[in-house]
Amino acid sequence: MKRPRNIVILTGAGISAESGIDTFRGGGGLWEQHRVEDVATPEAFARDPDLVLRFYDMRREAIQTKQPNPAHIALARLDREWPKSEGGEVLIVTQNVDDLHERGGALNVLHMHGEHLNAWCTACDMRLRWTDPLIHRPSCPLCGEPALRPDIVWFGEIPYRMDEIHEALSAADLFVSIGTSGAVYPAAGLVRTARDLGMQTLELNLERSQGSAWFHETRLGPASAIVPTWVEELLR
Hints:
Helix content is 34%, strand content 21%. The protein has 236 residues and is an alpha/beta fold. The strands form three sheets. A six-stranded parallel β-sheet has the order 5-4-1-9-10-11, with helices on both faces.
């Protein structure tokens, strides 16, 4: 593989699973004993807001007890050291709504599906850091309205910052996908965009994803093992 200058890394649930964060696609289509349709769509929130808020309150509380694993820490090292050593840039685009990349030390992280530790005020359209429960309908600190919801991109909503993602891809030499199923769009289509742009593509995953055929190279294994090995090779 040609040595890259600019790298875009897409991460999914598989990189955080080893930190104890459940994935959407385990358990026969259940997510912590809930159907995705009941807790992760705008329709679900309109139908039963208490169920949805209670669910995300539990997730928000639980995520604050989890710790970054060696894969998060290795990517943070790459994020910090790559621009200094090669004059290029590393962008981590994550589908995950936890903050383990940041707590692992990464600086250049883009959350395309939102963040558990943020709230979105649907009255004034502001997003703010939020670590407490939402079930009791607290008022927005900015406008005073009790209109806060989880700042999560639910199924049927448009992911965040897609223009920035495609701009980064257009300047990249290497696209890497880590811990993704290859089933959720538009994230699953980024590898095709990368191939169309002529860049190298690499998949690091526990098992082959649904889009595995689009990658030039696939390495299989636990993220906490194969990601640090790859980062070490790249930095050498």
